[in-house]
Design brief:
globular; single chain; 16 helices; five-stranded parallel sheet; alpha/beta
């Protein structure tokens, strides 16, 4: 893996190379060029991360591949360990070495090409000893390998932990991709086997949680985009996202589809059949094979949010709506007979995430507070503007 630094004119230059770890788990770090490497590496590690979040089957992969086509932005596909490790159930996990070992053991780690030996070396050189810092270096290594200067991650599960992630990564920006809940639930039924009612409740819970947390972050850190608008007018929406991120729009983003299928693991290509095609509006598909009663019950569970977002008109007939909601919850309770383990894991993980933020060393004045990161970024900017000043 080859790292790069960004010089004073914004050009990229190769500065360090890592040899991937061998099958025996050993690796070596090659010689690096002198001065240019460290400021460039630090700039990428401490650049404001980008999290693309959204309910499952809402278009997060589409937005991720679009952003990843930007010459300065690297957004990895569902590197869940960037979320799971700092928000792990073991809230005492604040050691970089432990965090990297946990990342390697993570179920989806092998679907990504990370040089852990090189990351450990960088952590030692930069004096990073905590889990969140180690995850920053891990993610930044992908950006450096591609000659990019900003890192990000796309994973739907992050939506439910947006508030905690905003504390762990206090300079992060979040792009929340929203899709008509009826479409998202229907797609979940086809792809993951969830019942329509389960998909509806997952969409509602994620939407409520994400929007509530996002509203507290403000417009500089949280942006909502509609999948339908991205498909209908991709350039306008990409320009909007770039303005939010403080990046210049790049025409290469409109050609994302040419390399989109190389940006996600081959094992997931089957669930993204249209990823290699130019974006275009799609017709409604939520009127699927499910019984009408189930469709109406699922829609009733999402009525408030669908109306609020403009996806549906206010329902008429209060008593009929109440009956449908009762039917929806009854169907959900019935479906729990096969979903209880997932439900318990989700509840445990939510509790663990809150505990990790409280006790994981993310105190207001600490190195990963907004002030601490801003101070580091200001110091780096000063060193770039006046390279002769130590």
């Amino acid at each position: 893996m080859t790292g790069v630094s960004i010089d004073n004119n914004g050009r990229t230059a190769a500065t360090v190379a890592f040899v991937p770890e061998s099958e025996h788990g050993t690796g070596r770090r090659l010689e690096r060029q002198p001065d240019p490497r460290l400021p460039g590496l630090e700039a990428v590690v401490w650049a404001s991360p980008i999290f693309v979040v959204g309910c499952p089957r809402s278009g997060t992969t589409l937005v991720q591949t679009m952003l990843d086509s930007h010459p300065r932005i690297c957004v990895t596909y569902e590197s869940d360990f960037l979320v799971d490790i700092p928000l792990g159930l073991r809230s005492s996990l604040a050691n970089a070495a432990q965090a990297l070992r946990s990342a390697v053991a993570h179920p989806n780690f092998r679907t990504h090409d990370f040089d852990v030996a090189g990351v450990r070396a960088v952590c030692r050189e930069l004096g990073i000893i905590d889990s969140a810092g180690a995850m920053r270096v891990l993610a930044a290594s992908q950006a450096l390998a591609q000659g990019k200067s900003r890192w990000g991650n796309k994973t739907p599960k992050a939506l439910l932990h947006l508030a905690e992630l905003a504390v762990v990564y206090p300079d992060a920006q979040f792009i929340h991709v929203i899709r008509d809940g009826r479409e998202a639930a229907s797609s979940q039924t086809r792809v993951s086997g969830r019942s329509l009612v389960e998909g509806a409740l997952l969409w509602r819970t994620g939407l409520r949680t994400g929007r509530r947390a996002g509203s507290r972050l403000g417009p500089n850190r949280y942006l909502e985009v509609r999948l339908e608008e991205v498909l209908a007018s991709p350039e306008a929406q990409l320009r909007r996202m770039c303005a939010f991120l403080g990046e210049d729009f790049a025409p290469s983003m409109l050609q994302f589809h040419k390399g989109a299928r190389q940006r996600i693991p081959a094992s997931d290509l089957g669930i993204h059949p249209r990823l290699g095609e130019p974006p275009q509006p799609v017709s409604s598909s939520h009127e699927d094979a499910a019984p009408k009663l189930v469709q109406r019950a699922a829609a009733a569970l999402m009525d408030k949010e669908l109306v609020e977002l403009g996806y549906a008109r206010a329902p008429s007939g209060r008593s009929r709506r109440i009956v449908r909601i009762i039917v929806g919850y009854a169907l959900f309770i019935f479906s729990l007979r096969r979903s209880l383990p997932d439900l318990f894991r989700h509840l445990a993980r939510c509790q663990g995430a809150r505990r990790a933020v409280r006790h994981g060393g993310y105190e207001p004045g600490g190195p990963h507070s907004q002030g601490g990161i801003m101070a580091r970024q200001v110091a780096m900017s000063a060193s770039i503007e006046a390279p002769g000043v130590p």
